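Notes from the 1:1 (GR / supervisor)

We went over the backlog. Supervisor wanted to see one worked example end to end before approving the batch request, so GR pasted a single chain during the call. The sequence is below; no edits were made to it. Supervisor asked that the structure be written out right there so they could see what the output format looks like.
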Amino acid sequence: MVHDRGPDVGVRCIVSDRKKKPEAIGDIVANLLGQKGLSERVDQASVIPDWPKLVGPQIAKVTLPQSISANGTLFVHVTTSAWMNELSLLEPELLRSLNAGVKGMPIRRIRWLLAR
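Structure output shown during the call:
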């Protein structure tokens, strides 16, 4: 029921919105991210929690992904310089594995950082 309280239009919107069915919060967030052009970045960032599955237990044990820049650079901490060297050589293969599960913007480069 819409009450007319004069020039206060906000009251009408709130009351009339109550007639809509509730939406799942996940759907609302997904729509908002899509409208803002951020959904591809969120999909791209999914490699961080999925890192152990994507690279395997041996590499996951000595690495920790930190962030992904807007240009597609993934920053990963590595436990030793020997592993950093080895992973640099494996980068093309790792990029293929990481990008196989990404919808949208791919990971273009991995920046290996020595953990302190």
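Supervisor's comment: The mean pLDDT is 80.
Batch request approved.
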